[in-house]
Design goal:
Blueprint (H helix, E strand, L loop, with lengths): L1 H7 L2 H22 L8 H14 L8 H26 L2 H4 L8 H22 L6 H11 L4 H29 L7 H23 L1
Helix pairs in contact: 2-3, 2-4, 3-8, 4-7, 4-8, 6-7, 6-8
């Protein structure tokens, strides 16, 4: 079980052992399941873009197909999160902290809703760990209009998938040996995406 969880948090293992379908499931789960916040969405999408160009046999699809499938998984994930939030409602705020779920995760996401409003948060959240998992859930809790939610859900998914896969795909064209430095790239991306979250946590403390 522990080995399986380790593989789920390692972008290389996800693609090596699970291929395209596990890649799509992880993108769906990170945005659609309450426990999905620990999954490596950003790094996985970037890696998929790199491998699509550098090692096309690893995913067996072209760039356009890859982007379409990943965007669809991200949209469906958010829609599932919205549905869950609409069903659970205020019970989520009363839920006690557990090993995985923490009320602080809800508080961080709510800070973005209070500061930027629901529409902008749904787009911005795609690029922020933790927030991207809880943003659609809270949208369901506070009953944001579903059609409006779906519009910004789709816009955010397209922006998230296209930007990260595009960066990965074109980095290979500029630096063919980039696959030798994936560890450093993953660390840099984790730090960049975690900074806004750390800023909120430090402010609250």
């Amino acid at each position: 079980m522990w080995e399986f969880l380790k593989q789920l948090t390692d972008p290389n293992s996800i693609i090596e052992y699970g291929g395209l379908w596990l890649l799509l499931f992880v993108i769906f789960a990170e945005t659609g399941l309450l426990v999905g916040f620990f999954l490596p969405g950003d790094n996985l999408i970037l890696l998929a873009g790199i491998l699509c160009k550098a090692k096309p046999d690893s995913l067996h699809v072209g760039y356009t197909e890859l982007v379409t499938l990943m965007t669809s998984a991200a949209v469906l994930g958010n829609a599932t999160g919205y549905w869950f939030g609409s069903k659970v409602g205020e019970k989520l705020y009363a839920r006690k902290d557990g090993v995985i779920f923490k009320q602080k995760q809800i508080e961080i996401t709510k800070t973005y809703y209070d500061k930027y409003g629901g529409n902008l948060t749904l787009v911005m959240a795609r690029f922020l760990p933790i927030v991207r998992t809880f943003a659609p859930i809270i949208a369901g809790v506070i009953k944001i209009d579903f059609f409006k939610f779906m519009f910004f859900n789709i816009v955010g998914a397209i922006a998230w998938i296209l930007s990260l896969t595009g960066i990965g795909y074109f980095l290979v064209q500029m630096f063919p040996q980039i696959t030798d430095y994936m560890g450093y790239i993953f660390i840099a991306l984790i730090l960049l995406t975690a900074l806004p979250i750390l800023r909120i946590v430090l402010k609250k403390n």
